[in-house]
Specification:
about 700 residues; 25 helices
């Protein structure tokens, strides 16, 4: 049997550790797979599949399809230049013989190859693959040491760092143990089961039995299998009381990475706690205890929950009693905070905002609230004047729930709990809703504010965040965006498009900058902020199917026209490009653009037009100008473009029969003025110089 026909093998590596935090486990598993594949490739070892597994106490990688030998390979090593390697008669110099000797080949085997602008001698080295088994000790050690996470640690005086202390190493190549050592820990064929249910070490004799033997010892090593078990059993338990678990994929992922042997258990709590806000109860269960909340078929929260234990099912009753005792205590704390908060109105907390810093250079939360109030007032006056009073009231109250006990304990409830407190204070229902909606959307494409007041408050809050942080130099850099300004910019765009606001970004940004104390450089700041918005718009419209040239033709207008009009123009240009006369018109209008100077010109004088083609062009342009203006006022951009294309023939006739650069300066400037007027009209719809 030849080397290529030799049967392939499998490799198993398990890194046994102290408990790995759930938030690190997915990244560690992913990194282990990527690094293993990279290290195999770097060492010229083929494989058919690399699969990684993991639980809180172990990371494992199983590779299949590994041949007995490394791949043979050829490498080329460049040496001295041809001029240095051979004399005038073509005989090898000392440079050539020395280079050949250093590579272990005869000088006759050197070849010439071009590189950059010259020719060089090259040594072609044939390297035969060696047995993979011989390489594995070093390779496995590299794989272990390649796993790096931000919060790694050292232990027992060792120099190496890992996610958590390593307690054992299991390594097998088919049925053979591969021996290597890291910081005194020697690899073997022994692993360990569940910490409490199967604490004794046991032997793995063959790789295919690995997962099954672990399962027999109360360890489900596949994260996806643990997730399936949790989901199916949780759904079955919730169905038993005619309910369903509150959908929460992130919590399912977290819980599946917290346990090695998942056993969901149904628990309950006294119904009296259902008087508390639903979101508060869910947050307590989710954040503090990692419990799944259960709601009925109508979406109302029930007094049941599911805890995922890390023990055998026969212990379920003990788990349930303990979980119920703990959740009652947690709910009592939440109830205390909620009832204490309700003793004081949100309105009475406004002055207390003066004592809370918003940001060192941007003052207090009170100053922040006033800026938001002023901007919300401006936006309401332009979007829906009837909402001005509500928007101002919502803005003043918008940050007061940050001072409450519930939000201090559960920051993720900001806004949500404010809505409940505002309702308790008998505030207007739309004002109350706006306190929650000010944080929507979190990401582009997420749920948007439903109320007009909520949309205005969300815009005001986010635009103030963007402009104020830009004003003090706290702008995103590279991948760093600590204040989530990119995300908030996309949220502003989403709201403006969704609500069809008639305001331009430049007007909104200018209004926001007026609320800042130092506005000496407001022009520069506004320009920077608007460019930041423009950078977000390009990929957004690209994702909607508009070509890069179409986007560029309209993007320069993003600051000055409402975003809803940008989208209409994009669609109009896209449709216009599909018409039969598009290419002819584009060629003609680009002729106009290419000769038109950017400098100022004297106003067009009709009396100086004497050639028939220029008179005809002026006549057609004058006639269409009014019509195009009317169409654009009615947002009929496609019709405006189609009408504008009526200038194709007059433009071509003009250029074919008229010398623009006439010897008489006055005539020349007048013809240029005519062309500039045409280009100005055309570019008010789109910049045709960007189109293809």
């Amino acid at each position: 049997m030849t080397k290529n026909q030799a049967p392939c093998s499998s490799l198993l590596l398990e890194i046994g550790t102290e408990d790995i935090p759930a938030r690190f486990l997915p990244s560690a598993i992913r990194q282990l797979k990527e690094n293993t594949e990279t290290i195999f490739n770097d060492n010229h070892i083929r494989f058919s599949e690399v699969k990684t597994l993991g639980s809180p106490r172990r990371l494992a990688v199983i590779a299949h399809g590994i041949p007995p030998m490394q791949e043979d390979r050829t490498k080329e090593i460049f040496g001295p230049s041809k001029k240095a390697a051979f004399d005038a008669d073509g005989r090898p110099t000392k440079a050539a013989t020395g280079f050949a000797g250093s590579q272990g080949i005869s000088v006759e085997k050197l070849i010439l190859k071009k590189k950059d602008k010259g020719e060089y001698v090259v040594a072609v080295i044939e390297e035969k693959g060696i047995y993979v088994r011989e390489l594995l000790p070093d390779i496995l050690k590299k794989i272990v040491l390649s796993v790096h996470l931000p919060k790694s640690m050292r232990w027992a005086g060792n120099d190496m760092r890992f996610i958590r202390p390593i307690r054992w190493l299991l390594s097998m190549f088919d049925n053979e143990t591969i021996s290597f050592e890291i910081e005194g820990i020697k690899s073997g064929n022994m692993t360990r089961g569940h910490r409490f249910l199967s604490p004794a070490a046991f032997q793995i004799k063959e790789i295919p039995a690995y997962a099954k033997l672990l399962a027999n010892n109360h360890v489900v090593v596949d994260p996806q299998e643990r997730k399936r078990i949790i989901t199916e059993k949780a759904e079955k338990l919730s169905s038993s009381i005619n309910g369903k678990i509150v959908k929460d994929e992130e919590l399912i992922d977290t819980v599946s990475n917290l346990v090695e042997y998942p056993a969901p258990v149904l628990g309950s709590f006294p119904e009296e706690y259902l008087k508390l806000p639903k979101e508060l109860l869910i947050t307590v269960m989710r954040e503090h205890q990692k419990y799944f909340a259960i709601e009925d078929i109508k979406g109302a929260l029930t007094n049941y929950f599911i805890i995922t234990s890390n023990t055998a099912e026969e212990n379920s009753e003990t788990v349930r009693i303990g979980a119920e005792r703990v959740i009652r205590a947690r709910f009592e704390d939440a109830k205390f905070y909620f009832e204490e908060d309700c003793r004081k109105k949100l309105e009475d907390r406004i002055n207390s905002l003066k004592n809370v810093a918003y940001q060192e250079k941007l003052g207090t939360l009170y100053e922040k609230a006033l800026r938001v109030k002023n901007l919300a007032s401006y936006l309401a006056s332009k979007i829906n004047p009837s909402l001005t009073q509500k928007a101002e009231r919502a803005a003043l109250l918008s940050k007061t729930d940050l001072l409450t006990g519930v939000v201090r304990e559960f920051p993720e409830l900001q806004g949500i709990i404010g809505k409940y407190y505002a309702g308790h204070d008998k505030e207007d229902a739309e004002v109350a809703a706006a306190l929650m909606e000010q944080y929507l959307p979190v990401y582009y494409g997420d749920r948007l504010p439903e109320t007009g007041t909520g949309a205005i408050l969300s815009l005001a809050d986010k635009v103030d965040n963007i402009t104020s942080f830009f004003s003090v130099g706290l702008t995103p850099t590279g991948s760093e965006d600590p204040f989530a300004l990119r995300r908030q910019t996309l949220a502003v765009i989403a709201i403006l498009l969704d609500k069809g606001c008639d305001l331009s970004l430049s007007n909104i940004v200018a209004a926001s900058l007026k609320n800042l104390k130092d506005t000496k450089q407001s022009g520069e700041i506004a320009e920077t902020v608007l460019r930041f918005f423009e950078q977000r718009l390009e990929p957004l419209f690209s994702s909607e199917g508009y070509g890069p040239d179409i986007i560029q033709s309209v993007l320069h207008l993003s600051a000055e026209i409402p975003l809803k009009e940008m989208r209409r123009r994009l669609q109009a240009v896209k449709e216009f490009k599909e018409t039969d006369n598009y290419n002819d018109f584009l060629t003609a209008i680009k002729r106009v653009k290419n000769i038109t100077p950017v400098t100022a010109l004297p106003s067009l004088k009709a009396k100086l037009l004497h050639a028939e083609p220029e008179k005809k062009l002026y006549e057609e342009f004058s006639k269409l100008k009014t019509e195009i203006g009317s169409l654009m006022s009615g947002y009929k951009y496609f019709e405006a473009l189609r009408t504008l294309s009526g200038l194709t023939a007059p433009i071509n006739h003009f250029f074919d029969n008229v010398l623009v650069m006439d010897k008489q300066e006055e005539i020349k400037l007048n013809r240029l003025a005519l062309l500039k007027d045409i280009w100005t009209l055309a570019s008010s719809i789109a910049d045709f110089s960007k189109l293809q």
